[in-house]
Design goal:
Blueprint lengths: L1 H47 L1 H6 L1 E6 L2 E10 L10 E7 L10 E4 L30 H13 L9 H9 L1 H16 L8 H9 L5 H10 L4 H9 L1
Antiparallel strand pairs: 1-2, 2-3, 3-4
Family: Belongs to the ubiquitin-conjugating enzyme family.
Protein name: E2 ubiquitin-conjugating enzyme
Enzyme class: transferase
C-alpha cells in the first residue's frame, strides 16, 4: 500500500515536470517558428523588391538558418559613404517580430551613430521605437538613411560625434577615407595615407594608425603622442 502511494506520487511529479517542460519549451518553439516564418517572408520581400534593387540593399542567409543573416547596403549618394558597400550582421531573436533584430556593422565605418570599434548602432527602431509591423526591409532602408542623416546629439561613438559637430569638413574627409579603406569607395586625393604609412614605419598597425589619426583630426604629432605616451 505504501509502495503504491509512493509510485503514484512519482508519476504525478514526472507529469508535473513534463507539463512545465511543454509550457516553457513549447512556447519557445512556437515563438521561434513565428520568427522564422516571418523572416522567410521578409527575406523574399527584399530579394524580389524593385525598391531594394534600386536602393542597393540586399540580404543573404548565413549558415543555412534564417536567424542569422548578412545584410548589405550601399553608401547613399552625396554622402562621404557614396560608392562604398557596407556589410551588416543581422541576428534574429526567437521573439521576432515582437522584438527587433540585433544588427551591427561588420564593415568599419566613421559615423557618429555607429561604433568605430565594434560596429554597434544607435538607432531608435532597433531599440525602444521598434514595432512588430516593421520589417527587414525597414531596417535596411533605415540604416541606409542613417548614413545620410546622422544624429550627433544621440551618438554611439562620442569621438566621431565631437568631430562631426566641431569640424564638419574634417569629419566628411575622414568618413570618406574610411569608406575608401574599408568599403571599397573610390579613392580621392589626400595626405592621409602618407601619414598612416609614417606611423606604420614606427611599427604601428595600419588600422590602429588610422584610428589614432582620425581621432586627432589627422594631426600626426598628436596621434603619435597618443600612441606612444
Amino acid at each position: 500500500m505504501c509502495v503504491c502511494k509512493y509510485y503514484a506520487f512519482n508519476l504525478f511529479t514526472v507529469d508535473d515536470k513534463f507539463l512545465h517542460y511543454l509550457t516553457v519549451y513549447g512556447d519557445r518553439w512556437i515563438m521561434a517558428n513565428i520568427a522564422v516564418q516571418r523572416i522567410k517572408r521578409e527575406f523574399k520581400e527584399v530579394v524580389k523588391s524593385e525598391e531594394a534593387a534600386k536602393c542597393a540593399i540586399s540580404v543573404e542567409i548565413v549558415n543555412d538558418t534564417y536567424t542569422e543573416l548578412k545584410g548589405e547596403i550601399a553608401g547613399p549618394p552625396d554622402t562621404p559613404y557614396e560608392g562604398g558597400n557596407f556589410i551588416l550582421e543581422i541576428k534574429v531573436p526567437e521573439t521576432y517580430p515582437f522584438n527587433p533584430p540585433k544588427v551591427r556593422f561588420v564593415t568599419k565605418i566613421w559615423h557618429p551613430n555607429i561604433s568605430s570599434v565594434t560596429g554597434a548602432i544607435c538607432l531608435d527602431i532597433l531599440k525602444d521605437q521598434w514595432a512588430a509591423a516593421m520589417t527587414l526591409r525597414t531596417v535596411l532602408l533605415s540604416l541606409q538613411a542613417l548614413l545620410a542623416a546622422a544624429e550627433p546629439d544621440d551618438p554611439q561613438d562620442a569621438v566621431v560625434a565631437k568631430q562631426y559637430k566641431e569640424d564638419p569638413e574634417m569629419f566628411k574627409l575622414t568618413a570618406r577615407h574610411w569608406a575608401q579603406a574599408y568599403a571599397g569607395a573610390p579613392a580621392f586625393p589626400s595626405d592621409f595615407d602618407d601619414k598612416i604609412k609614417r606611423l606604420m614605419d614606427m611599427g604601428v598597425d595600419e588600422h590602429k594608425a588610422r584610428v589614432a589619426l582620425s581621432s586627432c583630426s589627422w594631426n600626426l604629432e598628436k596621434a603619435t603622442e597618443t600612441l606612444f605616451s
